[in-house]
Each structure stands twice: as C-alpha cells, then as structure tokens.
Amino acid sequence: MNGRNPLSIVTDLLRRGVSSTHQKIALITGANKGIVRAAAEQLAALGMTVLIGARNPRRGEDAAAALRPDGRTEERFGHLDVLINNAGITGSGQVSPEDAHDQVPSSVDLDMVRAVFETNVFGVIAVTNAMLPLLRRSPAPRIVNVSSAAGSLTITSDPDGPLPALPTSAAYTPSKAGLNALTAQYANELRKNGILINAAEPGYIDTEINNHSGYLTVAQGAAVLVRLATLGAGGPTGGFFSEDGPVPW
C-alpha cells in the first residue's frame, strides 16, 4: 500500500466520515484464517461491519470478500466499537506444541524470544493505543486480547496439570502471560471510561498454527471471542475467560 504503515491505513479508514446512525464496527487483527476468521463471520452475522487486519494481502482480501454481501457499498465510519487483538506468532512456526523443542529456556534463541514478544505483546500495545481514540467514540467499546491457557501461570506451574507435559517455552508461553498482565493493566486504566477489555482462551483449536493437532473447531474457539466482544454494560473487565468461564491467572 505505497509503503504506508498498515496500522495508519486502518486508522485513516476509520476516521473518514461519521455515520448518522451507529453502525457497529469491529477490527480484528490477523483475521484472514483460523478462529478469528470464524469470529469475523459470527460478528458480521450479528450485523457488524468487520475490518480485517492481515499480513497476507491475498488472504485478507479473500476473507473480506467472503464476509461482504454481494453488491454492498463500502462504508467508512469515524469510530470503532470492537477491537480483537489476535495477530500473534509461536516463534516455532506451524508445529504442534510437543514439537516446539526450540523454545526450551536453557537453549532458546534470544532473537526468537524478542520476535515473539514484539508481535504478541508490543504489537498489542501499538494497535490498542492507536485505536483507543476511535474506541472512545463508541457508546460501548470492547477489546478482546486472544491469549492461551499457556499464559496461565497457575496452569503451567502445576506439575499435574495438562500443559507441563509439553516442552517448556521461553518465548510463546511467557508472551501470553505478558499479554494477560497487560490486559489487566489496561482494564485498570480504562474501566472508568466504560471500556471493557478481557483476555480470551479459545481452547485447543484445529488450526495451522498447531499443524491441525487441535480437537476443537474454529467456530467453537471463536465463541468466547464473540461473547467478550459483545458484552453488555455490566460485563466483566480485566478477566481471563474461556467459553467455560474464568481461567486462572
């Protein structure tokens, strides 16, 4: 896009024009495939206009085309109602967790750790801060950070729990713990403004990121994202949730 920062392009898109009626707008990063593409479809089915952030332009266009009704005129709004921060990397590529041996703390490549945190933590800060002025224009702004049970210190420190049986991780797992902590801090700052922000644990989904080793469908994983994105005024903020309820920190 002429060398422009994709984040600035999305921001400009949202700032152009204000609708006379409040059409709900959602922005989802990394939404061209997997669980968040399913979430995009579900939010669109609820009547929201969904903007898709994708690193791969072709996949992004394909996803947008699938969500856009035939003949619909593109509409641009000056606000944002829902932000779902999903874009993330494992650092190990698309492998199942049991094969991610390159993340063992004593031998991990520090450049990998930096790259994972750059995307999974620092990227969330960059996008959230860029979108906050637009979210503040919404009557009911919601932010969802897509996390993982791997980010739960309670779960990963339990020697009898499900995750310690997997290889230890000095990159992906700590990045998701950092994302959870960041979620709580944003909630502490923004709750007075009525902005609800929560972390979501979609479950072990059958997606490319784990080489399709998961057992839940993308639609099942998307359910908690959609629920947190559409919370009512009395909904929680600063929490960590799966579709079954609260997840321990």
Structure characterization notes:
- The chain is an alpha/beta fold.
- It has one domain: NAD(P)-binding Rossmann-like Domain (Rossmann fold), CATH 3.40.50.
- The chain has seven helices and seven strands, in the order H-E-H-E-H-E-H-E-H-H-E-H-E-E.
- Strands 2-1-3-4-5-6-7 form a seven-stranded mixed beta sheet, sandwiched between helices.
- Strand 5, helix 7 and strand 6 form a beta-alpha-beta unit.
- Helix 1 packs parallel to helix 4, helix 2 packs across helix 7 and helix 4 packs parallel to helix 6.
- The chain is globular, with a radius of gyration of 18 Å.
- The termini are far apart.
| CATH classification class | Alpha Beta
Order of strands across the main sheet: 2-1-3-4-5-6-7
The overall number of domains is 1
Q: What is the helix/strand order?
A: HEHEHEHEHHEHEE
Index terms:
249 residues, alpha/beta, Rossmann fold, seven-stranded mixed β-sheet
Give the SSE layout:
Blueprint: H1 6-15, E1 25-29, H2 34-45, E2 49-53, H3 57-67, E3 82-85, H4 110-135, E4 142-146, H5 153-156, H6 172-190, E5 196-200, H7 218-229, E6 240-242, E7 245-246
Parallel strand pairs: 1-2, 1-3, 3-4, 4-5, 5-6
Antiparallel strand pairs: 6-7
Short description:
Helix 1 packs parallel to helix 4 (110-135) and helix 2 crosses helix 7. This protein has a single domain (6-68, 76-246), classed as Rossmann fold, CATH 3.40.50.720.
